[in-house]
Amino acid sequence: MVVYNFAAGPAMMPQPVVTQIQAELPSLGGSGMSIMEVSHRAAAFGVIINQAETRLRTLMAIPDDYAVLFMQGGGTGQFAAAPLNLATNHRRIAVLDSGQWASRAAGEAARLGVAADVLATTKNAHYRHLPPLPPIAAATYDYLHLCINNTVEGTTYHHLPDAGSTPIVGDMSSNILAEQYHVRDFGLIFAGAQKNLGPAGVTVVIVRREWLHAVTAVPSMLDYRLFDQKKSLYNTPPVFAIYALNLVLQWVQEQGGVAEMQRRNEIKAKKLYAFLDESPVFANLVAKADRSLTNVVFNTGSEALDQAVVAQAAAHGLMNLKGHRSVGGLRASLYNAMPLAGVDALIDFLHDFEKHL
Amino acid sequence: MVVYNFAAGPAMMPQPVVTQIQAELPSLGGSGMSIMEVSHRAAAFGVIINQAETRLRTLMAIPDDYAVLFMQGGGTGQFAAAPLNLATNHRRIAVLDSGQWASRAAGEAARLGVAADVLATTKNAHYRHLPPLPPIAAATYDYLHLCINNTVEGTTYHHLPDAGSTPIVGDMSSNILAEQYHVRDFGLIFAGAQKNLGPAGVTVVIVRREWLHAVTAVPSMLDYRLFDQKKSLYNTPPVFAIYALNLVLQWVQEQGGVAEMQRRNEIKAKKLYAFLDESPVFANLVAKADRSLTNVVFNTGSEALDQAVVAQAAAHGLMNLKGHRSVGGLRASLYNAMPLAGVDALIDFLHDFEKHL
């Protein structure tokens, strides 16, 4: 049975990448050593991490004055790193509360003594549309935190709000390389790997170098400038995860880059949303302009029926359709590695499910 | 050609573990999904992380009142986490400066505003023996930081110094499971995985629960109590690294546990040290009582000759014998996964090398 994995992350990876990793697992480049056994100071790994950086720079057209860092700790680590490194002037950041992960970012900043002002929230609307940004007074906030794609709620900032002179910190964990953005519109972008970039364990950070400065009382593992100076090799990095990331980046390049990924993702998402919008049973309640390409949330309105969908779908090889535990319902994550055939199989199954109700 | 990898970490892994990972890489347990694609909230991963904890508890006889945490960031992350979580009373820790990594731990604590008193150092003796612990006044320090095995300098605390009522924080990164210790002698033990536990990317923390308490202004990713409460699943953990770690733990159990590992490691190390002590060319200069089982440092006294050894050894499949870049010379790391045959091959090669000088 062909299996399609709709998990929100860790998530499906491109099949050729998994195949290549398996093939070369015992002996990287004929070295007789597994990538798991390769020293981060070895020349072979130097090639890999440099390739990964170069590929990401090419794919996202990252300007030279932005640093690319490979860190650990995922988005949650960055919820701390960003305020600790960058909220050193006003000690105050602005947040648009577009859902759970934006809210957690605000909470982490506050925990670390940085005021996090929620300028707008759509919580009362169940986050079914994105909060609009009110005018921001200049020189008030160190940055505006935006969760670019809201994995749990299924919304995306396809266009960034105008924050004026306030830099934007973008949590792009769930739609990096899935959709085109201009890096220059951000002061910083971060993304955990486990959705569009590879296995969990490495976190990509793209940050304007000019913004970096010496910080005090910040753990070294969260110090952007230190990681830039040491080219992400201050200590032992997650070697395997960076290796796998590099292969995923290669795959995206081979497929035609981010523009092609976006084109395919739009086709996949459009098809699924069109089905849901026509369905007498399933509904997506997100405002159309804000709908995510990568995370399609939907439900039947009945918890029991939703559970039946999850179970029966799994029996058909359509895995992990359960919505996030905080919101329930159903969710299909359509990251870059999900082929159109997977979406077609899902639609066929859902169609069949509703016919037999 | 059989390859033996003497790298200090990331390092050699048990061959059967690499083979198993390769075999099940495309489809974990017949699921049709790679371990790299498995959600950390999936039942399959719950089994894995629970097994890993149970196996580690069994192997190290970890008492129930100690928490076992799987974190990210390696030893360097713990150099921050330990003072941030545990040096909250006196805001002062004691350090025995036994080498580079102890010194870096002291530096990180100081960076974070915790006084780090170096009670003794053997820096002037090139760290060739361990610094003795002077008497410690009770209720002066939150803890004593000890680097149990000094990977760079090739020394080990085979017996812990008497710190009285001051808890010991042990950095066991390079000899965890290689040698038996009593967990109760420590308040906290930590270890990056990439030497004896598996691939880089996961860090094991063993900490007395009673010592944990609510902390303020500590990044969530470094918060021991939070990780204990959330069973290391506060956010997405490094799934693949924990999976591989679990298989390494299984292998250690199958081999006979830590006692058997120590027995083998003593045989391997004794053999290599005996050769070096007899050699007219190679010398290990570490005080015999303090010699490490896992990291044997040696040199010829000539940098050029050391380099020739590294290059010629590599041509014979004996890889990564270069000493740490900060001290030069040669180093053979003999972690659990290094078979006696590797040590024999190394001795044969070194013997041959000196004969042909």
UniProtKB/TrEMBL annotation, chains A, B:
Entry keyword annotation includes tRNA-binding: no
Binding-site list for L-glutamate: 41
Positions bound to pyridoxal 5'-phosphate: 75-76, 101, 151, 171, 194, 235-236
Cofactor note as given: Binds 1 pyridoxal phosphate per subunit.
Pathway: Amino-acid biosynthesis; L-serine biosynthesis; L-serine from 3-phospho-D-glycerate: step 2/3
Cofactor dependence: pyridoxal 5'-phosphate
Signal sequence, renumbered to the chain: none
All copies of domain Aminotransferase class V, residue ranges: 3-346
This protein's UniProt keywords: Amino-acid biosynthesis, Aminotransferase, Cytoplasm, Pyridoxal phosphate, Serine biosynthesis, Transferase
Enzyme Commission numbers on file: 2.6.1.52
GO MF annotations, alphabetized: O-phospho-L-serine:2-oxoglutarate aminotransferase activity
InterPro entries for this protein: Aminotrans_V_dom (IPR000192), Aminotrans_V_PyrdxlP_BS (IPR020578), Pser_aminoTfrase (IPR022278), PyrdxlP-dep_Trfase (IPR015424), PyrdxlP-dep_Trfase_major (IPR015421), PyrdxlP-dep_Trfase_small (IPR015422)
Predominant localisation class: cytoplasm
Residue numbers of N6-(pyridoxal phosphate)lysine PTMs: 195
Catalysed conversion reaction: O-phospho-L-serine + 2-oxoglutarate = 3-phosphooxypyruvate + L-glutamate; 4-(phosphooxy)-L-threonine + 2-oxoglutarate = (R)-3-hydroxy-2-oxo-4-phosphooxybutanoate + L-glutamate
UniProt-annotated location(s): Cytoplasm
UniProt record similarity statement: Belongs to the class-V pyridoxal-phosphate-dependent aminotransferase family. SerC subfamily.
Assembly with partners or alone: Homodimer.
Known role: Catalyzes the reversible conversion of 3-phosphohydroxypyruvate to phosphoserine and of 3-hydroxy-2-oxo-4-phosphonooxybutanoate to phosphohydroxythreonine.
Protein name: Phosphoserine aminotransferase
